Amino acid sequence: MTNASMATTINAAEAAHFGALAAEWWDPYGSSAMLHRLNPVRLGFIRKAIDAHFGGDGKTRFPLAGKSALDVGCGAGLLCEPLCRMGAAITGIDAAPENIDAAEAHAALSGLQIDYRAGEIAQQGLGQFDLVTSMEVIEHVTDPAAFVAELARHLTPDGLLLLSTPNRTLASRLFLVEAAERLGQVPRGTHDWEQFLTPEELTALLADAGLEIVEMQGIAFSPLKGLHLSPNMALNYILFAKFV
């Protein structure tokens, strides 16, 4: 899993789209407001996965102390910063240099040491990490299979991989693309529904890379609960996986 790779997965148009939003990434009421609402839900799942995989008790403040972590498609650092606060030596990589600039500026204000990089993951000369995460990214790359292979290549043999992505269903087309974008919940042009992966498709890509899913949950919405973890995967789902 340590051989050099020439894989290219960045979609230049997607990178430019998200780079143009960099200045508002940390504004909970700006163009990334949906991510700010989604992040606590993802973090709840992520913390439980970390404890389950690394033998934590759910109580320690630094469950990733002594661990290395890589967040691929990190944006301006919404996940990197919590992982850093959990004790990880964290590296974040994103396709858009503007996002990395925003991430570095925010980390400096927060007093956090995070290694941020812009560009293709395969071209960074990075080693392997105990934890690899990629949230809402695989639906934006040019080659999902190559992307998953790169994530696996950067994972230690006993490491933990965490992914989340929208599902390709009629419900996601209506609510995540048509309604959310038309009502201004997410910026226009953020999603291409045809690029969404079903759980079955992503499971197959992970298996091809030698990984098996340990747990998968949906991220659903209801007026009473808002965004929450659920068995219903019609809109979005999150998973953690390990090598077979």
Rounded radius of gyration (Å): 17 Å
Number of domains: 1
Computed structural class:
alpha/beta
Low-pLDDT runs? none
CATH level-four homologous superfamily name: Vaccinia Virus protein VP39
Helical coverage, percent range: 25-40%
What does this structure look like?
The chain is of the alpha/beta class and 244 residues long. The protein has a single domain, classed as Vaccinia Virus protein VP39 (Rossmann fold), CATH 3.40.50. Helix content is 34%, strand content 24%. It contains 7 helices and 8 strands, in the order ααβαβαββαβααβββ. The chain has an 8-stranded mixed beta sheet with strand order 3-2-1-4-5-8-6-7. The two termini are 14 Å apart. The mean pLDDT is 92.
Structure characteristics:
single chain, 244 residues, alpha/beta, Rossmann fold, eight-stranded mixed β-sheet, 8 strands, globular
